[in-house]
Amino acid sequence: MLKNVSxxxxxxxxxxxxxxxxxxxxxxxxxxxxxxxxxxxxxxxxQIKAAKAKEEAEKAASQPSATVVVDxxxxxx
Length: 77
Hints:
With 77 residues, the chain is of the alpha+beta class. Helix content is 47%, strand content 21%. The chain has one helix and two strands, in the order E-E-H. It has a two-stranded antiparallel ribbon.
């Protein structure tokens, strides 16, 4: 089966990004699809941030604390 599609292409930092959709797609549906993609990307970013925060917290918890202990010698009487 042959089908006509619309393809948008954008280059960012020498990387190519494409959006493919039916050539008769309503603009409102395309906007909704893009919004859903943005939501998904936001969710992935949140998961990455949470994983980094957890990793940093575990790293900080595994390092010994730097408490200073002062040992005072008994005073001569």
